[in-house]
């Protein structure tokens, strides 16, 4: 297997997995609706940074500890699950608060600007932590990278290259999602602001999904 064939083969596999809905997709969609494009791209960049670190760790053999140690995997699994539950609960809280204060949205076209929800760096950190605290991302790289390492090629540089390919695919997918949300917002309201009702629905759906995935991750065996 040459480097080129390895990159192309890995890109095909990673591309399919990228578009499967999951925690990362739900988080980016929620942020795109609630905070706008800037925060959504920051969240996506944080997710991709976390994936890059997982890829480097897998190539270096660090994340193989998750396979070798039941305790290490259990700690990562519980920590990641709790984090997702907390993030999801905060989204449901925001949805409930928006519902209680949404009486002003009486007219169908009433629009309010997105509430201040922190800096882009905070969005970046949320995306990175969501990815880094998910041990299944590490297990994916541990299981997949060895199959795409050509003979005679150093594992760490090749692992980073493959992780970068995965990141590029993810950013392209996230850009499509974010652009789609922006177009839908403009079509719906004729403006870049997000209707309170849409933000509330997105918070409720994304929060419920993250809590469900967090509980599944915590109880996974």
TrEMBL record:
Keyword terms, alphabetized: Cell membrane, Membrane, Transmembrane, Transmembrane helix
Name of the protein in question: Threonine transporter RhtB
Transmembrane segment boundaries: 6-29, 41-68, 74-92
GO cellular component labels: plasma membrane
Taxonomic path: Bacteria, Bacillati, Actinomycetota, Actinomycetes, Micromonosporales
Bilayer topology term: Multi-pass membrane protein
Key word DNA-binding present: no
First-listed, main subcellular location of the protein, grouped into a coarse class: membrane
Molecular function as annotated in GO: amino acid transmembrane transporter activity
Location in the cell: Cell membrane
């Amino acid at each position: 297997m040459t480097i080129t064939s390895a990159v192309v083969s890995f890109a095909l596999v990673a591309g399919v997995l990228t578009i499967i809905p999951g925690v990362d997709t739900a988080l980016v969609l929620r942020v795109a609706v609630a905070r706008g494009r800037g925060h959504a791209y920051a969240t996506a960049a944080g997710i991709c940074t976390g994936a890059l670190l997982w890829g480097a760790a897998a190539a270096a053999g660090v994340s193989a500890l998750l396979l070798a140690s039941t305790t290490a995997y259990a700690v990562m699994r519980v920590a990641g699950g709790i984090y997702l539950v907390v993030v999801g609960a905060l989204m449901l809280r925001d949805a409930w608060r928006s519902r209680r204060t949404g009486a002003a949205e009486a007219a169908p076209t009433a629009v309010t600007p997105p509430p201040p929800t922190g800096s882009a760096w905070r969005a970046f950190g949320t995306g990175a932590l969501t990815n880094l605290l998910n041990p299944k991302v590490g297990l994916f790289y541990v299981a997949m990278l060895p199959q795409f390492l050509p003979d005679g090629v150093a594992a760490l540089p090749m692992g980073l290259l493959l992780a970068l390919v995965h990141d590029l695919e993810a950013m392209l997918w996230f850009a499509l999602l974010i652009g789609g949300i922006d177009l839908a917002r403009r079509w719906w309201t004729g403006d870049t602001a997000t209707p309170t009702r849409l933000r509330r629905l997105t918070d409720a759906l994304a929060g419920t999904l993250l809590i469900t995935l967090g509980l599944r991750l915590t109880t996974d065996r």
